[in-house]
Amino acid sequence: MNSITLFAAGSLRLAFTPLLAAFEQESGYRVEATFGPAGMLRERIEQGERPQVFASANLEHPQRLVALDFAQAVQPFTRNRLCATVRNIPELTQPDLLTLLCDPQWRVGTSTPVADPSGDYAQQLFERLEQCLPGQGSALRSRAVALVGGPDSAPIPAGRLAAEYLLAEGLADIFLGYASYANALAACVQVKVRRLPTVLDFKVTYGLCLLNEGSVAAQALVAFILGVRGQRILQRMGMLVLD
């Protein structure tokens, strides 16, 4: 059986697990997937590792690989948005979320900027908050703590969701992460997912690139991800349709 090597953003693990299973069943190819912070995966590619396909939680990392001639083009393939997961206590589930984010008594956790696009998107959220409420965005940026997604971050135990684990361990009261985890987090009674207020909400675009143009198998995987069946699976697993 032919195999395909894939590097994919960690936030795609839940969606890509059924997607890759469906692709393998349909195509007969086997996919060896490595999931992790997209920025760190991109660095591994630059340092010499050669997956055949790279799927990132942003467009910038695959665009850099194109600029370095590791790939020919970047293909947007799905979207996501941020949300806030909070400890399931009335003090964090009932008040306005904008008010909570501005309240210094609550510890806010994020992923690691540069290493993980989720951390970069959190920084964009802080910028939006600063534009909306001058001084509050910079204050939140200064006190927010990058807890996951970096080279020195403590690992999340297998089978645990980052937001649930970090809040359960008392490392944060609020975690800013991807909304695609909302359905999975709904089963965790100790946390509650809250949608961001309109002034802070925005969609983010995921991009992939083919690193081995000569691989028929890798081309088939990209086509499946972009095709009707792949897109339906992504959306069923909480990802958003491309506009």
UniProtKB/TrEMBL annotation:
Q: Which residues cross the membrane?
A: none
UniProt keywords, alphabetically: Signal
Q: Show the Gene3D superfamilies listed in the entry.
A: Periplasmic binding protein-like II (3.40.190.10)
Q: Which domain of life is it from?
A: Bacteria
- Region forming the signal peptide: 1-21
Question: Which is one Pfam family of this protein?
Answer: SBP_bac_11
The yes or no answer to whether the keyword Signal is present is yes
The protein's name is: Substrate-binding domain-containing protein
Native organism is: Serratia fonticola
